[in-house]
Amino acid sequence: PGLGGGILGVTPFPSSMSYIYQKRWVKLDSDYLRYFDSEKDTYSKRFIPVSSISRIASIGDQKFEVITNNRNFVFRAESDADRNEWIRTLQQIAEERRSKERLSMSPTANGAADPADKSGFLELRGFKHKLFVAVAGDKVFLYKNAEDYRLGIGITYIEMNVGNVKEVDRRGFDLTTPYRIFSFSADSEQEKEEWVEAMQQCIAEALSNSEVAERIWAVESNRFCADCGSPKPDWASINLCVVICKRCAGEHRGLGPGITKVRSLKMDRKVWTEELIQLFHHIGNAVANRFWAANVPPSEAIAPPSSSQERRRFLIAKYREGKYRRYHPLFGNQEELDRALCAAVTTSDLAETQALLFCGAAVTCATGDPQCPTPLALAEKSGQRLQMEFLLHNKTSETPRLELGGSEDKPYSVPLPSVTHNGFLYKTPSMAKPVGERKGQEEFSRRWCTLQDGVLSYYENDRNAVPNGEVKAEEIVCLASNPPHAHGIENTFEVYIESERLYLFGLESPDAAREWLKSIAKSFVHPCAEELLALDFQRIGRLHYKGGLNLERAEEGWFALAGSALHVCVPGSERQEPLQLRKLQELSIQGDNEVLVLVERRRTLYIQGERKLDFLGWVQAIQKAAGSAGDTLSEQQLTESDVPLLVDRCIDYITQCGLTSEGIYRKSGQNSKTTSLLEMLRRDARSVRLKEGEHQVDDVANTLKRFFRDLGDGLFTGRWGPDWLWATALEDEEEKIGEYRRLLGTLPTVNRATLKALINHLFRVQLFSGENQMNTHNLAIVFGPTLFQTDGKDYKAGRVVEDLISHYVKIFNVNDQEMKKQQDEIMAIMKMREAASSGTQQAGDFICTVYLEEKKTEAEQHIKIPATMTAEELTFEILDRRKIVMKEKDYWSCFEVNEREEAERPLHYSEKVLPILHSLGTESYLVVKKQMSMENMLVYLASRVGDCKHGMMKFREERNLLGLGLSTGFHDRYFILNHTCLRLYKEVRSHKPEKEWPVRNLKVYLGIKRKLRPPTCWGFTVFYETEKHEKQQWYLCCDTQADLREWFATFLHAQNGGALWPSETSKVRASRWQQDSRLGNISLIPLRGNESEMRNSVAAFATDPLTLLRNV
Ligand SMILES: [Zn+2]
């Protein structure tokens, strides 16, 4: 509604009686009345904001007048009827606008647009006089002069979602759109730089996702700031459930997160779950203000033009003091309030919960119900999802109190320390992308910079009073120091701000750069994370993360990266040990650069990419810090016990597959394979999994030797190596051992741990010398020169190794308990070997946790997965353990569940489980349950003709993190699926498919994560891996359940040559692999899985002493 278009005669300035009418195309929408030269034009000759129209009057034949506060416009229609139609529409739209503004209690002054981010005069090619230009929100407005700008009546505006800005020469720059190029020229180079920056920011804003905003704004009252009434507010307080404008949001932030948690509708995409959006539909500005603004004296209310001081005063009174709120009748009676809260959360009455909570009811009050001890649990039990959402966001909210307001001088609940620092810095224009390439010295300009009162400002020079630009400390999310010489200026650092921009600063002197870094960090890092400031950090900032016991909800924490340690500070929690990145068990990225997963032995941390720019910087820095830094031992990725991961991986593999291999460590492997394996392990040992069949024992053995031979500074170190060799001359055995022990004590920790691990390994290898022919002497001949990096002509080096193996127990102080472990381990290995040679046992079995029916602790089964085990065998094994009999038409199957994608895939009965386990991410697990749709799928397949299916489905591609502007959401597409490929057509009539995928490379999961808001609940998540191992992910949605079933059945049919269900299951049952209960819990491959899975597996192992084998 409210859209009008048509040809009218217009006289722009009816100053005299003799009007001259020109034919114009006139367009009316809810915001503007505009006229154009022709219907085809994109840019108007003039726009009049609807909000500035005070009256529309009919003035005789076919004519009407649009009256604004300052200027009148006369239009002539083709006929009286047409004229009347225009008047009616205009009046209606103007009235709607006025009532909206009344609702929000704040008249927009003269219809002026949003406060401009930048405004001023610019030359525009094609215009004689300079124009007044304003960059505001996601548009650039052109006005004839400053007076028109004040009145809000302009020439045209440019929607910047299609804009592109390019610098042309010293003062000139082009704003290019598909319809026209605007060639501007500024007064100075400096001015130009600022205009370009402002317009680029404007483009970024226009491109940022407005999907959430559109949905929130669907409710009328949410279209105006809850506090000042500005239109199109795109920020929100997610605990108060109010939608607010950018300027109010700035002041909200000052109140602290205990009062209001500020998020952007457009930039903080991750926050906006379906529940939260619903909550804003149910509470939102209308319900919230009925409570918070029940008694606002007109003299205290604020409006869009209010100053920031006025806003601050009002917001403190409104939310921190609760001065205007509607008091709940139970106010003051804590017990009654709490009781009422417990009752309210079980109903859908959110307004009541709001009133109770902000009048003093305790969000964590005792309910007296042991089953549901908190109001949150009560809400959950009653199925009140929105109540839960509301309570969760207000978990830490403070109750408003009048005395909280305090004096005007202390408006911030958590005042950031005020840091003052100033000096000259080199600076480049701000960027919306990572600094990709080296910036030459000429790309920096020297600026006078000051850091004062929480604002970093930069000036043309130290005599200027007006800054060229500023960055508020509270907007800074990350500060990163670059390595020296990264750019043309020797020392540089980057400042990242909340709205996805980054500033690059530089300095000649490293000390001065450090000084700036510390000062800036101090100005934005929350006082709770003060300890991070003392570190020699390369990167510091705030990020959203999940970890520890709270995996439901991401929280904000402060992070600092110093060397290879990642320090974490969480408000309100104890100090945490830093994560040693080189010792991580896993470091991976999930989704499309969305979550960084760090797995340590004791904890798992998920860092979320709330904003993309600083997150990408963190990911790169963490990956780099977690890799090996050089060729000495201590620079490698390490295990928990300080042994290089590379060494650990090789030893583990040889122990598992090569102890009895003849000539192990003496035979040389293939040179090329050794070289490439060593390179792979050196680059990132963490991600390398050595697998039997894929890697040869001798290649791995050779890799380990090569590593030690090439090691920087050697295992025995350059300093102490000669002393070890010298010790071999000692004749008295006891004296010699004593000297070895002394020397061992002088080695750095990592060298000592590595030497012990290696000698322990060789000790075990020689125990099998009967089979592998490698006794202590033979091993010493190989390892002596390798470890001492000598040519081997002299046996002294070999002697050291021989002594170390022979006197292993004494030299390394191995006690009885450890020795017992060793013996048990050897026994276990022998048993494994015997079992393997008798054909009943495969080496390299894998223990994993499988759930029965659903993921919960009681449903856990720890099961050993031999390489040959199929999904069907696994299913039977689990059912057997629980004594469940499979009845006919009980389609028990094994499913792979991906929690992050909220999707699952039934494994085909003949699929091998082990490779799937290896490929499972930390958020996936296996569960055995009935496949409910199998019967229907079998019936469908039996009844149809041919083996293909075609029809419409809704299609969505996974959004690329950096792919701004890519299409999102689900779109109708036509699909054809046959036994070889799946084809996508733009529409039914299309001849050529837009895309085509081979069926065998697709992995089809049932379900789509809710976050994507699929249009129906019958969807698939599809993964596609190309021959080059590139991964793609997309989503399909069907209209009905039957449709989904048919597509899925067709997929399964195509992928498995028609067999969906085994015809005769008894065969499998009879020949099923027999479990050896004694060895059932041994794993020689490090386990993967999420924290709880690991914990559970480890707990299971602890009951069996043989499992200690892993901890060598
Ligand atoms: Zn506002």
List key phrases describing it.
single chain, 1112 residues, alpha+beta, 7-stranded antiparallel beta sheet, 32 helices, 23% strand, disordered C terminus, binds zinc ion, zinc ion binding, metal-binding, repeat
Can you describe what's shown?
One of its GO terms (biological process) is signal transduction. Pfam families: ArfGap, PH, RA, RhoGAP. Keywords: Cytoplasm, GTPase activation, Metal-binding, Phosphoprotein, Repeat, Zinc, Zinc-finger. With 1112 residues, the chain is α+β, with helices and mostly antiparallel strands. Helices cover 33% and strands 23% of the residues. The chain has 32 helices and 43 strands. Strands 18, 19, 20, 21, 22, 23, 24, 25, 26, 27, 28, 29, 30 and 31 form a 14-stranded antiparallel sheet that branches. Strands 4-3-2-1-7-6-5 form a 7-stranded antiparallel sheet, covered by helices on one side. A 7-stranded antiparallel sheet has the order 11-10-9-8-14-13-12. Helix 18 crosses helix 23 and helix 23 crosses helix 24. The N and C termini lie far apart (74 Å). The relative contact order is 0.04. Residues 225, 227-228, 230, 244-245, 247-248 line the site of zinc ion.
